[in-house]
Specification:
alpha+beta, single chain, 151 residues, Nuclear Transport Factor 2, Chain: A, 24% helix, 6 strands
């Protein structure tokens, strides 16, 4: 089982992986995820393919969703990660953080700032910590109650 001390080592890999993601390369982030059947990803860019709902479930859906999301970014600039909270036990850990970056997004030709509020859950697998759930959304400031209403 991965030692609690190893958790911070894995967290230090995350910013470099996201930097690559912002350039269109999902591989480094995919390596940090579990590849098991119960891995999940709630991505703010939507499903990668028909049949994948707002939460990708299982490695096949998660990897497709990551590839689709990374394809929406190019020319990314370094990300910063502001840790809000983290908690680690020998069996499970979570981190809540804000990711900030700059990238060309979608069809835009200008580099634009972006920020995501992120929660990740990790567990030890084969001697290292792996992400088993990630939820990211663009809400980084308080929102009015009316923002919850869907038209």
């Amino acid at each position: 089982m991965a030692a609690i001390d190893e958790f911070d080592k894995v967290l230090r890999q995350w910013p470099a992986a996201v930097d690559e993601f912002q350039k269109g390369n999902p591989t480094p982030t995919q390596e940090l995820f579990s590849h098991r059947h119960d891995v999940t990803l709630a991505n703010p860019l939507g499903p990668a393919a028909p049949g994948i709902g707002p939460v990708a479930h299982g490695w096949e859906q998660v990897s497709q969703t990551q590839e689709h999301a990374a394809s929406q970014f190019r020319d990314g600039e370094p990300v910063s990660v502001e840790i809000v909270e983290k908690y680690v036990t020998p069996e499970l850990a979570y981190i809540v953080h804000i990711e900030r970056a700059r990238a060309k997004i979608g069809g835009r030709e200008d580099v634009a700032p972006l920020a995501l509020r992120v929660t990740m859950i990790l567990r030890p697998e084969d001697g290292t910590w792996k992400i088993v759930h990630r939820h990211a959304d663009p809400i980084t400031t308080a929102q009015a109650a009316e923002s919850l209403i869907q038209n």
